Task: inverse folding
């Protein structure tokens, strides 16, 4: 039923092809452009060179930004792993007053527009962190911001796994005389491990690519890779290097999610949303 | 499930979320009611609706209206592209190719948001890909922003709609055909109503993401102003006003979510 045939079928195939082209052509153009011989962009490229790749790989700006991005991603992922797992255990294994409020609170950082979250964190940095604690915007504040919205990624992954696991194994462990900590260490954690790895990869990928909140939390001295691209986007002299870094960013943002899917299966991919 | 409050598990994450996030959020909503001293540019605490009054008049009402228009256009375009595409994926593509097709759409969803917006500069600029291959370009501005945002959020619409097609019971389609409904009648009167909640779920993404965007707008929008760019512009000199603009975008989003809840969209997120 409702399996189109003839002309309709061909029209639908053509439409799907058009959508796929719409999705892929711009990304492919960026890829081709990173080998463009000209400094200024013209289509089609007059010739090809790997010169910009060499320039980009040795340029200090992108490299420092890459290091900042990796540190920020690792820091945010570690914090989110701990906090997200704790929250997930609390919300799936216990029923308590205010449970749905806590659930809402976890989702809020990705549900609200990023610019509002960014604005809020920025004013917290300039009004509280800097005058009271002497911490100015930099790597630390980037990590705090990223961890806040990465918690939900870990939370979703671990919650999906905990629901599927059920409680029988944990109850069996308790019946055999294991305390809560032993049960967690020897039963729950080993069963959660792949969900944690998949969630951690997704959180890292999310942090690595984030720019909306980061604009407000990164100080001028510590750009992440996306911020570095954004700062150099409108400078014609930097255009060839920006193209190369853009390709690197696409690959590095796809890679963690792809790995997470291989490890965690379909439940991992869906929770990125 | 045990009926007990697990304080030990909740303490650390709640401390983080309440202090680092909720506190900051509350202070920015409060700031929306403060004013800025026009001589020193310093924020003056107090309670005043001046920021919201300024928002309701002239330029800024125009910006809010334009942002809503763009978000609506992007949403309509995403629905128009996603429904036929998801239909092909779910019902025309042979079953064994389906996962490949889905992966083809999903992979760009994960590719860097910034680079995707940047990619449209090369497409739209003078002597760019569009002008050289199709003979013309809309240039940076309104059309470019609608196009780029549609591009950015399209996968967020395709995913829920595809899932909606997959959930559609074959028996409903057979019943419609048995009762004499043509394919088109079945599509219009059985499939589309059943897809409603899935489409609504997709629009939550396309609408709210468009509402708060400022990166893509600043990259391909030329001088075009949207809510997001206005927030950024006022951020340094007039924080209370920027906070008021941010508050407006949150209020619009909450209204939209409440409206969508009646369609059952939120269960499909």
Result:
């Amino acid at each position: 039923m409702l399996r189109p045939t003839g002309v309709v079928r061909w029209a639908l195939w053509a439409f799907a092809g058009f959508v796929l082209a719409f999705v892929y052509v711009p990304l492919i153009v960026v890829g081709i452009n990173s080998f463009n011989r000209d400094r200024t962009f013209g289509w089609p490229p007059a010739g090809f060179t790997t010169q910009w790749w060499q320039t980009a790989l040795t340029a200090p700006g992108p490299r420092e930004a890459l290091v900042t991005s990796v540190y920020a991603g690792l820091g945010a992922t570690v914090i989110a792993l701990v906090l997200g797992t704790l929250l997930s255990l609390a919300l799936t294994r216990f029923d308590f007053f205010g449970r749905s409020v806590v659930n809402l609170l976890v989702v809020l950082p990705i549900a609200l527009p990023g610019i509002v979250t960014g604005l809020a964190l920025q004013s917290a940095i300039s009004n509280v962190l800097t005058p009271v604690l002497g911490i100015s915007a930099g790597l630390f504040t980037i990590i705090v911001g990223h961890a806040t919205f990465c918690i939900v990624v870990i939370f979703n992954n671990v919650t999906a796994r905990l629901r599927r696991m059920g409680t029988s194994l944990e109850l069996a462990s308790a019946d055999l005389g294991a305390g809560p900590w032993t049960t967690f260490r020897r039963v729950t954690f080993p069963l959660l491990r792949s969900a944690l790895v998949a969630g951690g990869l997704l959180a890292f990928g999310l942090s690595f690519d984030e720019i909306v909140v980061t604009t407000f939390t990164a100080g001028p001295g510590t750009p992440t890779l996306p911020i570095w691209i954004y700062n150099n986007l409108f400078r014609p002299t930097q255009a060839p290097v920006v193209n190369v870094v853009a390709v690197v960013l696409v690959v590095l943002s796809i890679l963690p999610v792809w790995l997470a899917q291989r490890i965690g299966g379909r439940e991992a991919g869906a929770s990125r949303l | 499930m045990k009926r007990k409050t697990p304080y030990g598990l909740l303490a650390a994450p709640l401390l983080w979320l309440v202090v680092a996030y909720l506190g900051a959020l509350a202070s920015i909503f409060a700031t929306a009611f403060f004013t800025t001293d026009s001589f020193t540019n310093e924020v003056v605490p107090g309670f005043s609706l001046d920021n919201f009054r300024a928002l309701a008049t002239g330029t800024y009402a125009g910006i809010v209206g334009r942002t809503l228009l763009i978000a609506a256009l992007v949403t309509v375009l995403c629905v128009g592209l996603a429904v036929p595409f998801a239909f092909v994926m779910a019902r025309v593509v042979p079953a064994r190719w389906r996962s490949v097709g889905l992966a083809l759409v999903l992979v760009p969803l994960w590719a860097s948001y910034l680079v995707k917006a940047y990619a449209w500069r090369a497409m739209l600029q003078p002597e760019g890909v569009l002008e050289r291959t199709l003979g013309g370009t809309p240039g940076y501005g309104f059309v470019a922003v609608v196009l780029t945002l549609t591009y950015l959020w399209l996968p967020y619409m395709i995913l829920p709609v595809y899932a909606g097609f997959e959930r559609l019971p074959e028996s409903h389609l057979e019943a419609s055909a048995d009762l004499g409904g043509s394919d088109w009648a079945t599509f219009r009167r059985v499939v589309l109503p059943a897809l409603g909640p899935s489409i609504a779920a997709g629009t939550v993404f396309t609408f709210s993401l468009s509402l708060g965007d400022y990166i893509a707008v600043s990259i391909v929008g030329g001088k075009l102003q949207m809510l997001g760019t206005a927030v950024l512009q006022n951020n340094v000199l007039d924080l209370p006003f920027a906070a008021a603009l941010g508050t407006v975008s949150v209020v619009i989003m909450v209204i939209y979510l409440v409206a969508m809840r009646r369609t059952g969209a939120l269960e499909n997120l």
In short: Residues 47-270 of chain A form a domain with the MetI-like fold fold (CATH 1.10.3720.10). Chain A has a mean pLDDT of 86. The longest strand of chain A covers residues 94-95.
